[in-house]
Batch of 2 targets.
Target 1
Amino acid sequence: MTAIDELLGHNADYAAAFGKGELPSAPSKRLAVVTCMDARIVPLRALGLEEGDAHVIRNAGGVVTDDVIRSLTVSQRKLRTIEVMVVMHTRCGMHGLADAEFRDEVQADAGQRPPWSSGGFPDLEQAVREGAARLRTSPFLPHTDQVRGFVYEVETGRLREVV
Amino acid sequence: MTAIDELLGHNADYAAAFGKGELPSAPSKRLAVVTCMDARIVPLRALGLEEGDAHVIRNAGGVVTDDVIRSLTVSQRKLRTIEVMVVMHTRCGMHGLADAEFRDEVQADAGQRPPWSSGGFPDLEQAVREGAARLRTSPFLPHTDQVRGFVYEVETGRLREVV
């Protein structure tokens, strides 16, 4: 049995007990969370985010890429969110990943160079500050006064505010 | 009190009860899930994904953008995942969003045109097929034989396999 098959079993149980009907598409807390894809981060548990509460945007690192700006532009302009929480974390695989080396490695194996940066960063707190700054200065986001940046400690489960 | 302040309260409770120590960074199920940022999708509940199980990559739509390919390249090459599940959903705000109109609207308000596509799509099942196809043919992903695509029904909680 594959991992996906196992998850389909969980989903069948969930659907069988599904009693909430259709929730609104606009997040009730008017919040979007940007965080890393890391398997150890479970927003329902770590942040108490229930169904319908908030948009959750995740990629390798929780770095503020153009795709994150795109998603937040949709989130704020079409679905009325106003707050943004950027959550990067300790022990992240992107922390210390050297961009040129990673792309060299992919190129050596794939026969072509990735057209995107790896997203690696040398300093965690600085990366949070840069992500928040990128959001605060984005011309595409109508709401940039409630952008806050955090480090999540995978060792303790604790969020620490950076900016 | 802002929504973020409320979440910080939840996190303090979570951290106080945090007993799992530090989990490994590599997902135990060797799986990455690509899905929409939609507030109604809670992977822990809908898929039974516990801490440490899987990477979760989310953006507006669950569309396979370059940033998703970047994240999956890191996921497979650095953290040993091999399966990929693409989960788009019914009642998605990106379903039927016309790209040119959305960019016109942003341009009219922001004074400059976004350099990225909106990610809108006209047909849901077709968008899932295209996302899966983009992953299966990516030169950067070493594992493309276990890519499966689904529609999640926000009305019922049920996953339906498309491809």
Target 2
Amino acid sequence: MSTPPLHSALEPLAFLLGEWVGEGEGSYPSDIRDFSYREEVRFWHGGKPVLLYTQRTTDRDDGAPLHTEMGYWRPLPEGRVEVVISHPTGHAELSLGSVADGVVDLASTSVVATATAKEVTAVERTYRVTGDELTSTLAMAAVGHPMTHHLAATLTRA
Amino acid sequence: MSTPPLHSALEPLAFLLGEWVGEGEGSYPSDIRDFSYREEVRFWHGGKPVLLYTQRTTDRDDGAPLHTEMGYWRPLPEGRVEVVISHPTGHAELSLGSVADGVVDLASTSVVATATAKEVTAVERTYRVTGDELTSTLAMAAVGHPMTHHLAATLTRA
């Protein structure tokens, strides 16, 4: 199946398009241990003014599946973007952010959770593309902790 | 890449696994016209106790992309399931439902929206599998209308 032309509204986010693979490190002041992971990220489009996004991480040592998430990035006028991400942990994350010079800064406007999900109250993300390198960070306020760094990864365009 | 073994918690939802293709009809008492669509649904897993779900629809006449959505189905004890779905329209839908005899009934527990999304206040879905046929319905309360039928589709396991 051929890829349709890029919608002009997606041009400010076009630097994210593609498949990205690399590694990251995670930590959090809860009961989890620091961990290293392999990450795959994919941004693509289907001709409409929205980016499709999937991500998955695996244990860097034994390849066991860790996290995965997927959702949509909606460009807005004036260098802004709205993001909707579903998590298998029972969370949905809605964010608003800015896009400029290859950098996306996102802050959640709401994080909602199913009845059995852990408490996550807010998420902040950054994505920075320089050439074929994507670096990303994620901080969150969760399980009683204020906004705290959780993840940092460096990926290369596959 | 080989598929890992099915997690035992997913057994009650295993009848959904696979790729499904078919057609549907949509209507709503807003300003949209009745429409016919082609639909592809995929349920799969990665070894964890959660189903991954993607869906997309295209115009039945000209193949133009219509809707797409993706998310996670989390089985709970006692024939219940939690679902998190992201929509490119700027919505996230969290639902709780029951699973019995090849039928899943879902009702949203919350529908959250980005600032630019249309108003959707509640969604109800049914999925019914009989052999290799999946029939689904979706009703929603949206843009000032109470819970009203919106979509019905019949798919076949591909």
